[in-house]
Amino acid sequence: MFNKSNKYLLIQTASIGDVVLISPVIESIHNYEPQSDICILTNTRGAELFHKHPFIKDVFVWNKKKNKYKNLLKIIKDLRKYKFKAVINFQRHLSTALIMGSMHSDKKITFKQSTFSWLFANERFEHEWNKKHEVDRNLTLIRNIVPEEYQVRKPKLYIPDDIHVDLPPSPYVCLSPYSLWYTKQMVVWRWIDLCENLIKLGYNVAILGGNEDVKKNNLFFKKFKINDHLYDFVGKLSLLETLYVISNAIITYSNDSAITHLASSVNAPIATIFCSTVPSFGFTPLSDNSFIIEPNIEILCRPCGMHGHQKCPKDLFICGNSFIIEQLLEPLKKLSLHE
User: Fold this and answer.
1) Among 12, 105, 24, 95, which Cα is nearest to 61's?
2) What's phi and psi for 203, nearest 5 deg?
3) Which CATH class is domain 7-150?
């Protein structure tokens, strides 16, 4: 029915950070098989990251925001037109397992923890929460495809030449105070304190965030005095435009969220603030200049979950408050020493 294929299909339709963290798999497959056609199935927002990507042949989009299951059936129908050398599913949900199981491919690869993996996949690997980075867990899935010496561990995205943003005057620092999860966010007044101190030190400050962060950003600016050194980009940039801003900054400060991985994908200096989650979960930054900031006191209830919560389970949120300004400025001082 189909000729021999050199097409790979990678499935990752979760959050932006998760999408970024499969980019080493893209780099690794291309590194080993430069002539292969790498295709990706992702969500509407994730598709932005692969605009003019040099190693991606096709981007397939599953729109989950509207008519989710109707669109699921449509994307399965569309993808069944192709023969894939391998289909790699990085998620553990039934929907993506169904997509993988419906494909024309001799290799269907996923994690053992994926729903019905025993039914839909013929290669299954353990998703190990043993202090491995998520990148390493993802690379496990191509163990039988790409030899280790060809594997690339760092996230990598590409900013096309047609992406341009009017940047703040240099030097500037990016702050990303927001997260999908409340308990992953350092409290707003600590961000305001950091912002004020950066401006006193002579830096301009760019505030980053998506459309979903606009309401929280209004609270930030309500509490912050109007300042000519503050630049508000929240809800105003595409993901690739955000990458452009990050790539030109002295450093970016972020919660344990997508911005951390976006900064890593362009090897930009990044300081990641961990509140309710911990670095051992495997989502630390991977830039050459990466810094990890954790609460300055021991907190017995931390971590309180694998992800985050919309409310502190103990109604205390000590982990989001336990930072001092000297601690927050330390990464910037270390960068200055290396200049």
Assistant:
1) 12
2) -100, 145
3) alpha beta
pLDDT digits (tens, 9 = 90+) for 179-222: 988 999 999 899 999 999 999 999 999 999 998 888 888 777 77
CA distance 84 to 96: 16
- Write out pLDDT tens, residues 229-277: 999 999 999 999 999 999 999 999 999 999 999 999 999 999 999 999 9
Among 327, 336, 338, which Cα is nearest to 201's?
Answer: 336
Rounded CA-CA distance 206/79 in Å is: 40
Per-residue pLDDT tens for 4-36?
A: 579 999 999 999 999 999 999 999 999 999 999
- Sheet with 37-42: list strands edge to edge: 56-61, 37-42, 7-11, 86-89, 108-111, 123-125
Residues in a beta bridge with 58: 39
- Pairwise CA distance, residues 46 & 16, whole Å: 6
3, 39, 95, 122 from 104: Cα distances, Å? 11, 14, 17, 13
Spatial distance between the Cα atoms of 12 and 45, rounded to a whole number of angstroms: 12
Assigned token pair, 235: 């809800």
Tally Cβ neighbours within 10 Å of residue 102.
17
Cβ 158 vs Cβ 30: under 8 Å: no
Q: Do 7-150 and 172-338 come out as alike in CATH topology?
A: yes
CA–CA gap between residue 309 and residue 181 (Å, rounded): 6
Query: What are the structural domain ranges in the chain?
Result: 7-150, 172-338
CA distance 1 to 252: 51
Could you say which architecture CATH assigns to the domain 172-338? 3-Layer(aba) Sandwich (3.40)
